[in-house]
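Pasting as-is:
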Amino acid sequence: MTNPAAYLIRMAVFLAAVIGVTALLSPVLITAFENNPLLNGLIFMILLMGIGWNLRQVIRLKPEVTWLETYQTARARLAVLPPPRLLAPMANMLAGRVTHGREGDTGRFTLSTTAMRSLLDGIASRLDESRELSRYMTGLLIFLGLLGTFWGLLKTVGSVSEVIGGMSSGAGDIEHVFEQLKAGLTKPLAGMGTAFSASMFGLAGALVLGFLDLTAGQAQNRFFNELEEWLAGLTRLSSGVLAESDGSVPVYVQALLEQTAENMEGLQRILTRGEEARIQASQAIIALNERISALTDTMRTNQQVMLRIAETHASLAPALQRMTDLQGGDEIVHAHLRNIELALQRLLAESEQGRAQVASDLRNDLRLLTRTVAALAEEPR
C-alpha cells in the first residue's frame, strides 16, 4: 500500500508557496482586505476550514493503510491497533477469521464477486461522502466572491446615482462642482473595492481548495485502486453456468455454494498438512532404518572381536599351562599370568560395556519407531 505521506508533502509544499506569495503581496492584500473586512474575513475563515478538512482527508488514510498492511503481514498485531473507519465493513467481515483462526492456519480467505462488489461500493460511497464537504466549500468560496462582487456593484451604482443627483451647476462655479464630484466618487470607489476584493479572495481561495481537493482525491483514488487490486487477488470467480444465470440463482443456493467452496479449501489445507506429516514420518523411518543398520554392523563387529578374544584365550591356555608346570614356583611366571589375566578382564569388561551400549541404543531406536508408528496410526485421514 502507498503511504499517504507523499500527498501530504505535496500539499504542504503548495501551501508554503501560497504563503510565500501572500507574504510578498501583503501590502496590496491588506489594503484590499480593509475594503470589506466582514465579507473578506468570512472568506478567509472558510478557506482555513477547507484547508484543514482536505488535510484531514489525507491523514485519515494512514490508519487504514496501517491496518491493511498489518493484516497482510502480521495479523496477530491487529488486536492492539484501533479499528478502521473507512474499512469498517471489511474489518467486521474478517474479524471472525482473525480471532477464530487455528494455529498453523494461514487464514487465507476468498470472496465472491458479489461480496467484493458490495465492499468496494461501500468504501467508494464513504470516500465520496467525505469529499462532498470539500467540494461544497470550494463552491461556497466562489459564491461569496460573486456575492461580494454584486454587492459592491450595487453600492457603486447607488453611490453614482447619488453623486449625479447631488450635483448642481446652477451657480456656475466649476471648481465647486469638481470638488463635489471628487467627494461623491469616494463611495462608488469603495463599492468597487468591495466588489473586486471579494472576487479576488473568493477565486484565490477556490483555487487553493481546488488543488488541495484534487490532491486529496488522488490519494483516496490511489488507496481505493490498491485495495481493489488486493481484493481482486482474493476473489473467486463463479462457474460458467452460474455466471450466465447469476440473476436467477437464489441467494441461499449461492451462499451454500460459497460455504461448500470454503469447506473444500479447508479440506485441501488439512490434506496438505497430512501429506507433509506423512513425508516427515517417512523421513523419520528412513533415518531409523539407517540407525538400526549401523547398530547391526556394530553388533556384528563386536561379535567378531569377542570370537577373536576367545580364540586367543584358547590358544594361550596350553602355553600357560606348560609354563605353569615347568616354572610353577617362579615369580616371573606368576607376574605374567596376572598381567594376562588383567588384560583378559579388561577385554571382557569392554565387551560387556559395548553390548550394554548397543542394547540401550537399540531400545531407544525401537521406542522412537513405536511412537512414530503410533502417531501415523492416529493421523486423521
